[in-house]
Amino acid sequence: MKLCHRLFQSSVGAKMLMAITGLMLTGFVLVHMSGNLILYAGPEKFNAYAHGIKSLGALLWLMRGGLLATFVLHVYLAIKLTIENKAARPVPYAYEATIQATAASRFMIHTGLMMLVFVIYHLAHYTFKIVSPEISALAPGDAYAMVVTGFSSPAVSGFYILAMAALSAHLRHGVSSLFQSLGLYHGNLNPITEKLGPIVASIVFFGFSSIPLAVLMGAIK
Predict the structure, then answer these.
(1) What contacts 171, CB < 8 A, 6 or more positions away?
(2) Distance of CA 117 to the CA centre of its chain
(3) Residue 192: CB partners within 8 Å, gap ≥ 6?
(4) Contact 189, 159 (CB under 8 A)
């Protein structure tokens, strides 16, 4: 307990915890994207995939609870560090455009908050089905039809793609910087870690965004 308290109180410790939770969330995003891409295999395979997840029962809700706790902790730490950084530097830099880390941190909190809004909407839309009456009217267990119906709306697809752009911007800086927070940013690793963020961000953006675009263009129907 004392160790956890020290990590929360220490700026370095809080950055390490944020890096760890960020790494866990990035792993989830990649796994979730891989599952979504099964849509291209057709309704039978995607529905079987969705049924396999639901069949986990209590374990699924336990995993969701752990994921939610990780997400909340990540958001809390991000806000905490942002407030502390502003308090430590009440007067802004005269030439902020030349200080890349400062600019990146400012955009990180904005894209992070946008993702918070998106997660709430996404859960209301597809998990709890309280946003779209069309989805609620579908036959239970037809996850494929649910996704196609949801993304048939240009407004929903547009918001989804915009959110994926924000997520990608967040990952572009976050994935590369988490190695520094964990003390792994040194020597020959630097060129690799610097490229990893943009690579992961591009994969996530094009992987997720391809689905609503495919639905709108009739490639998935």
Answers:
(1) 26, 29, 197, 200, 201, 204
(2) 11
(3) none
(4) no
Q: What is the CATH number of domain 2-216?
A: 1.20.1300.10
Residue 39 in tokens? 């849509």
Domain boundaries of the chain, sorted by first residue: 2-216
Structure token digits, residue 175: 């994935």
Q: What is d(CA 49, CA 170) in angstroms, rounded to the nearest whole number?
A: 28
pTM, full prediction: 0.84
Please tell me the predicted confidence (pLDDT) of residue 30: 96
Q: How confident is the model at residue 97 (pLDDT cuts 50, 70, 90)?
A: very low
**Which amino acid is located at 138 in the chain?**
L
Q: Could you tell me which of 179, 181, 184, 186 has the C-alpha nearest to residue 7?
A: 181
8-state DSSP, 191: H
